[in-house]
Amino acid sequence: MKKSIMRATLPTPPGQTLVKQLDLLKKCGFDGIQLGVQGAGELTLRTPDADVTALAKACRDAGVEPHALYGGITFFREDEADRKRGLEDAHHVLEIAALIGARDILIHPGQLTSAIPYDACWKYALDGLRALKEKAESTHLRLGLENVWNKFLMSPLEWQRLLAEVDSTAVGIWFDVGNVVVFGYPEQWLRILGRKPIVGIHIKDFKRGAGEHFGTVDGFVPLFHGSVNWPAVMRQLVEIGFDAYLVTEVSLGAQPLPDSLRELSRQLDVLVGYANK
Questions:
Q1: What residues contact residue 231 under an 8 Å CB cut-off, 6+ apart?
Q2: Does the pLDDT of residue 210 top 90, yes or no?
Q3: Is the pLDDT of residue 214 over 70?
Q4: Phi, psi of 126 (to 5 degrees)
Q5: Residue 206 · residue 221 · CB < 8 Å
Q6: What is the distance between the terminal CA atoms of the chain, rounded to a whole angstrom?
Q7: Selection from 219, 251, 117, 256 nearest residue 267 by Cα
């Protein structure tokens, strides 16, 4: 398994850019990075193609593989015209991924609300994934819908049904370990889902509330300070045959960045050690 980090967790103080942080990432032991298509920064929907390819080259020159993307795609939009614009943006994200040479894309589908009910979210998710799957298949990309706190797809059995209806090897789940903990056990999800639908993994921890009741976002804690049974999770990843990037989505805290990255890399070494036992 390889070590990677989500771009959103890296601080960007004034005068600092991602490109300036790449050598440090490599020195701290990170093999890859999940880049983000955001509203501002080094990668947006409006970034010129030449700048996109230059960013990818800078990553690879530093020895940090830009293997995945997140951002720029949402499906749960109440207005039909807005959904159409969203799909146009989504197609552009796939084009950006192809320019970068990334293989995997995380999709946060949006938020279920009183105005966008569960059955509508199901339809919008299916419509969006079906609209993108042909392009993903033809460009050898994989799309991973993330399990997030959006009141949607609350069990691995629902995920299996949705993915069966999409019916594409290019579409699966971006599995976030910490997001499951508030209402389930990630090692059980991994066993039920198996390797095939797993597009990517987010590594983070979560501490359940008293009596194992639902928690809040304050429950997201540093690795090994929460309720995730990491030995069981890592054993299950091995059993299903997962051997790709472990992408951290962890707050780096208040320490100087080099110290924080070295500690996070060390924690990933511990996780890989569990997998090797």
A1: 274, 277
A2: no
A3: no
A4: -60, -45
A5: yes
A6: 14
A7: 251
Among 167, 150, 249, 244, smallest CA distance to 199 is for 244
Query: What is the rounded distance in angstroms from the CA atom of residue 204 to the CA atom of residue 47?
Result: 30
Question: Measured in whole angstroms, how far is the alpha carbon of residue 89 from the centre of its chain?
Answer: 18
Question: pTM of the full predicted structure?
Answer: 0.95
pLDDT at 219: 86
- Give dist(CA 15, CA 231) in Å, integer: 40
Pairing of strands 205-206, 220-221: antiparallel
Q: Give 168's contacts (C-beta < 8 A, 6+ positions apart).
A: 129, 133, 136, 137
Summarize pLDDT for 41-63 with one digit per residue, the tens: 999 999 999 999 999 999 999 99
Task: Identify the DSSP state of 201.
Answer: E
**Amino acid 84: pLDDT:** 96
The helix/strand/coil state of 205 is strand
Instruction: Find out whether 209 and 215 touch, Cβ atoms under 8 Å.
Output: yes
* Position 216 pLDDT exceeds 90: no
The sign of the CA dihedral 80, 48, 135, 242 is negative
Quote the Cα angle for 30-149-233, to 5°: 50
Class of domain 2-276: alpha beta
